Amino acid sequence: MRYFELQILFAPNMCILVFYAYNIAGIAIPFAFLTFTVHRFCSIVYHTQPFFKKKRWVGICIASQWIILFVISLPFIFRNGPYCSYELWMRIYTCVLSVVVPTLINTILNILIFIHVRSSSRRINPRTTDTSINTIAQREKQERQQANRRDLALLRQMTFTFVIFITGWFPVFLVFIISYFININSTILAAFAMLSQLCILSIIINLFIRNHELKEYLLNKIRQVIRF
Predict the structure, then answer these.
(1) Residue 1, Cα to own-chain centre: how many angstroms?
(2) How crowded is the C-beta side of 208, counted as CA atoms within 13 Å?
(3) Model pTM greater than 0.85?
(4) Which range in 5-9, 13-17, 108-112, 123-127 is most confidently predicted, on average pLDDT?
(5) ∠ at Cα 111 (105, 116), nearest 5°?
(6) What confidence score (pLDDT) does residue 7 get?
(7) Is 136 contained in some domain?
């Protein structure tokens, strides 16, 4: 927010909307990770429930995420004091919502997912004398174990991505809080901003490498362009 001359560019009422939008933008990505974790948690733990496999559940998760973002950012609207001043409580509020809350909930849900997957993979199916039943049960067990391995791989990937994001953005929010008390050199601010952008770039590259279908599609397009 240091790059905005709010008192010059905006009227006081517009400053409220600018800070409101800033808080939403600051917590949108962490809450997107949190929404994905909630979706995966319900899909894995309650995999026998058809509702959690429908697109309607995906739509509910996405809609709920944005509703929560707009609601929990309302303190930036209903506040007293200098409207074009980025107060200390606002900086702490954004930092807590973007780092502390998503990290805590993500950690708890990921631990519960890991425990569920590990316990279900160790579960032994009952044996019977009927060969056909044993064959079906064995096939179902193998399919479930394969699904569990995919779930764990996806869990590791999303955890890694979330940690990279927090590593890059937490220092930025922390510097904003510290800058309220002391004057921080603009070079240091630029360095932390660069770190956050590099983390975003690394996440994009990592997702591109992991998404084999997208990688093959883009490589084929590049080959077609080179041929012409």
Answers:
(1) 23
(2) 10
(3) no
(4) 108-112
(5) 125
(6) 47
(7) no
Domain, as residue range, for 13: 2-121+143-227
Are 102 and 31 within 8 A, CB to CB?
yes
Q: Is residue 132 part of a domain?
A: no
Closest C-alpha to 31, from 69, 67, 57: 69
CA pseudo-torsion sign 147, 148, 154, 157: negative
- Position 129: which residue type? T
Query: What CATH code is carried by the domain that includes residue 78?
Result: 1.20.1070.10
The CA distance from 43 to 151, in Å, is 10
Dump pLDDT digits (tens) for 103-155.
999 889 888 888 887 777 665 445 545 555 556 556 655 656 666 677 677 77
133 lies in some domain: no
Q: Cα dihedral sign for 144, 147, 152, 158?
A: negative
Residue-wise pLDDT tens digits, 29-50 = 889 889 988 988 888 888 788 8
Question: Nearest to residue 80, comparing CAs of 92, 89, 72?
Answer: 89
Q: Which two tokens stand for residue 117?
A: 């997957």
Report whether 22 contacts 169 (CB < 8 A). Answer: no
Q: Is residue 220 part of a domain?
A: yes
How many domains are there within the chain? 1
Single out the residue of 22, 6, 40, 119 nearest to residue 76, CA to CA: 22
